Amino acid sequence: MIGWIVAGIVAVTLAFLFSYPALQRRHTARVRLTDPRYMPPLIMGIVDELYHPDAHATQQIVEAQYKAPAKAPVPDGD
Fold it and tell me: Does residue 43 share a domain with residue 23?
């Protein structure tokens, strides 16, 4: 009985691991269609955060500035 439960857990885990990349690609494609400002996370973001935190912090600032709306010009009071 326990063997079947463990086999089921292993099967579900393997199914998730093999299907996750396809699900992530589908999600990214759907978000890109609805939000033109969407930037997918960088692959090396975790490594940068751990081993080069300044670069990661700088990348977060750049992404925030890229996503921020541009300020409207102020009309002159003439």
Answer: no
